[in-house]
């Protein structure tokens, strides 16, 4: 018999009754029933109940052992009686009567228990992450993550993609988030940067003559944490393809996404092809380019109904260039008026001026807006929105961007409060037709709106003949349940078109050559049309695990301040190391 185990803690069944077996694992829970002592023994695979009776030579040692100590036990497999069977455990039909116990590693008193579901403060959980990861929910999440990555690799390889590894030490990029810089010891005063993404490298792979690339790529961005974004680093399924249109990219990635979500979840998954929603349409109907399509509410523009109307506040704002967006609230009229007041209070807590509303009870609209708008316009509003006799509607009035933003968050809140959002499905869509350029109010100039390396729809002709703000790009996002999983684009592989586009955004040819010369120079030697995308692995697993925070699916995450409390990073280094790197630190002035 093996020195540590003959079976895992999830292997044993009724067919093993009568056998002598050996298990190793952690003491999950200990229960003393007088003449019998029970230990639930846990390993990576599962749990087995071990029984120590007073006749066992191991009884005394078992009495003294603490939870989370690592032990090896040897004993005989027995049937559990019908009344003691545990259907929650795969091994719940049997138990092991222990003859021998060896303590491999005794645990000290725990700073946080592994048994149970009690929540503990973030700083305790992250400082003792190795204990946190022993807890069932987190342990399952990390194994899920491993399974997802393994499945992605298999699916991509089966689809004809080849995995390549791109450099980790590279050049600083002027675009996007802050870089993490690495001093170059052999080149005093110069720095490498950790890649924010392998963007330029994966395009250069296409220029190098390879065809279908993928990588589970680590990316590094000096960004603040959010619920769906980890500070410092994250992983993405990085993909690039040559000689493809936008449709080809969609057709390649949709089966992978559908397959992954069907493999690791029992929820209903959107079938390919995914719906395609133009950016402009998405901002109008959902108030966001990350719409949660589980929510059936669709926003509508009702500006003209309020123009020159008796509802003076909105009428004056419309005259000044504002628009009015309506957010239907199906069934809200059946609720008390307090529901509408609470929604208005919610909007103020979110930093907005408030939400106007109309409440329809038994077919009769009520509230200040309905009263001042007048019967004819109110009826026109009800007809346009298709409101029923017990519905309600909220309004957002502001300049277009502000109205869209408020309407979007209000749509989400109304959907949640009215329990309209279905929790049993993953609804995917593509957001397409992003504008190539936008007007920067602060800088008072045209700039790129999304991705400067995208091919404009219409190519050079569009850049030369169209208003820049009307030009669309071959840019696209995958969205699932209101979470952006990926951005992507058909790339601008033509140096002349790239220099023209950057010039329209105020970047001279000298700037483009300096910052992106490596890729631009490569394009001058024959670049294929190419495109790709990069779905976030962390976010995919977060959705599949039904976790509200991305930290719960990352093995060793940092806290909100980008600190690793377990390894105590970042940390100070010795002066000798700084000298080798030709670096001197300057502490910020104390206030």
Defining key terms:
globular, five-stranded mixed barrel, alpha+beta, 24% strand, 591 residues
In short:
The protein is an alpha+beta fold and 591 residues long.
Note down, in words, how this protein is organized.
The protein has 591 residues and is α+β, with helices and mostly antiparallel strands. Helix content is 30%, strand content 24%. It is built from 18 helices and 24 strands. Strand 20 and strand 21 form a beta hairpin. Helix 4 packs across helix 17 and helix 7 (279-286) crosses helix 13 (400-417). The mean pLDDT is 94.
Low-confidence stretches: none
Class from secondary-structure proportions: alpha+beta
Tell me how many strands there are.
Answer: 24
Provide the gyration radius in Å: 30 Å
Record the strand order, biggest sheet. 6-9-10-24-23-22-19-12
Helix and strand arrangement:
Layout: E1 20-33, E2 36-42, E3 47-53, H1 59-64, E4 70-79, E5 94-105, H2 122-127, H3 129-132, H4 136-158, E6 162-163, E7 181-183, E8 191-193, H5 199-207, E9 212-221, E10 232-242, H6 246-263, E11 268-269, E12 276-278, H7 279-286, E13 300-301, H8 303-306, H9 312-319, E14 323-329, H10 337-349, E15 356-361, E16 364-366, H11 368-373, H12 375-385, E17 392-398, H13 400-417, E18 425-426, E19 428-432, E20 437-440, E21 445-448, H14 459-465, E22 475-480, E23 483-490, H15 495-504, H16 509-523, E24 530-533, H17 537-544, H18 575-580
Parallel strand pairs: 3-5, 6-9, 11-18, 12-19
Antiparallel strand pairs: 1-2, 1-4, 2-3, 4-5, 7-8, 9-10, 10-24, 13-14, 14-17, 15-16, 15-17, 19-22, 20-21, 22-23, 23-24
Helix pairs in contact: 4-17, 7-13, 15-16
């Amino acid at each position: 018999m093996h020195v540590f185990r003959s079976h895992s803690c999830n292997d044993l069944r009724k067919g093993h009754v009568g056998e002598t077996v050996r298990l190793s694992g952690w003491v999950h829970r200990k229960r003393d029933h007088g003449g019998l002592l029970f230990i639930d023994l846990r390993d990576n695979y599962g749990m087995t109940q071990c029984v120590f009776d007073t006749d066992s030579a191991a009884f005394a040692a078992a009495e003294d052992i603490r939870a989370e100590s690592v032990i090896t036990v040897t004993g005989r497999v027995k049937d559990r009686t019908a009344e003691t069977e545990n259907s929650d455990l795969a091994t719940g039909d049997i138990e092991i009567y222990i003859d021998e116990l060896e303590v491999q590693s005794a645990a000290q008193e725990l700073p946080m228990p592994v048994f149970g579901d009690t929540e503990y403060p973030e700083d305790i959980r992250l400082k003792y992450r190795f204990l946190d990861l022993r807890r069932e929910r987190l342990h399952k999440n990390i194994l899920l993550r491993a399974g997802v990555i393994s499945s992605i690799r298999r699916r991509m390889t089966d689809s004809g993609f080849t995995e390549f590894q791109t450099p980790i030490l590279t050049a600083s990029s002027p675009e996007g988030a802050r870089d993490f810089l690495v001093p170059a010891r052999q080149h005093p005063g110069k720095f490498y940067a950790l890649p924010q993404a392998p963007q330029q490298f994966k395009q250069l792979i296409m220029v190098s003559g390879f065809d279908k690339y993928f990588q589970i790529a680590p990316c590094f961005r000096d960004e603040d944490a959010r619920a769906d974004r980890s500070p410092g680093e994250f992983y993405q399924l990085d993909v690039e393809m040559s000689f493809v249109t936008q449709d080809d990219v969609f057709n390649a990635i949709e089966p992978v996404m559908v397959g992954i979500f069907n493999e690791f979840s029992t929820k209903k998954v959107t079938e390919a092809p995914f719906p395609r929603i133009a950016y402009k349409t998405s901002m109008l109907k959902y108030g966001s380019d990350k719409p949660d399509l589980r929510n059936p509410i669709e926003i509508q523009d009702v500006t003209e109904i309020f123009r020159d109307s008796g509802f003076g506040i909105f009428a004056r704002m419309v005259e000044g260039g504002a628009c009015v967006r309506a957010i239907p609230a199906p069934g809200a009229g059946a609720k008390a008026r307090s529901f509408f007041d609470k929604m208005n209070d919610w909007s103020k807590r979110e930093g907005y001026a408030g939400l106007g509303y109309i409440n329809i009870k038994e077919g009769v609209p009520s509230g200040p807006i309905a009263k001042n708008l007048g019967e004819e316009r109110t009826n026109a509003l009800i007809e346009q929105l298709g409101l029923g006799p017990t519905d309600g509607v909220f309004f957002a009035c502001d300049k277009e961007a502000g109205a869209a933003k408020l309407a979007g968050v209000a749509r989400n809140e109304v959907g949640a409060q009215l329990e309209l959002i279905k929790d049993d499905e993953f609804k995917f869509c593509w957001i397409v037709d992003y504008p190539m350029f936008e007007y920067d109010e602060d800088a008072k100039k045209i700039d790129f709106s999304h991705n400067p390396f995208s091919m404009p729809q219409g190519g050079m002709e569009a850049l030369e003949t169209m208003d820049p703000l009307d030009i669309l790009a071959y840019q696209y996002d995958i969205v699932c349940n209101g979470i952006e999983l990926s951005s992507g684009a058909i790339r601008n592989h033509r140096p002349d078109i790239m220099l023209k586009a950057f010039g329209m955004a105020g970047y001279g040819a000298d700037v483009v050559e300096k910052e992106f010369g490596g890729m631009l120079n490569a394009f001058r030697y024959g670049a294929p049309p190419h495109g790709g995308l990069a779905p976030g692995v962390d976010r995919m697993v977060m959705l599949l695990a039904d976790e509200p925070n991305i930290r719960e699916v990352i093995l060793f995450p940092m806290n909100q301040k980008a600190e690793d409390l377990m390894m105590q990073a970042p940390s100070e280094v010795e002066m000798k190391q700084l000298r080798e790197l030709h670096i001197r630190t300057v502490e910020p002035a104390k206030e």
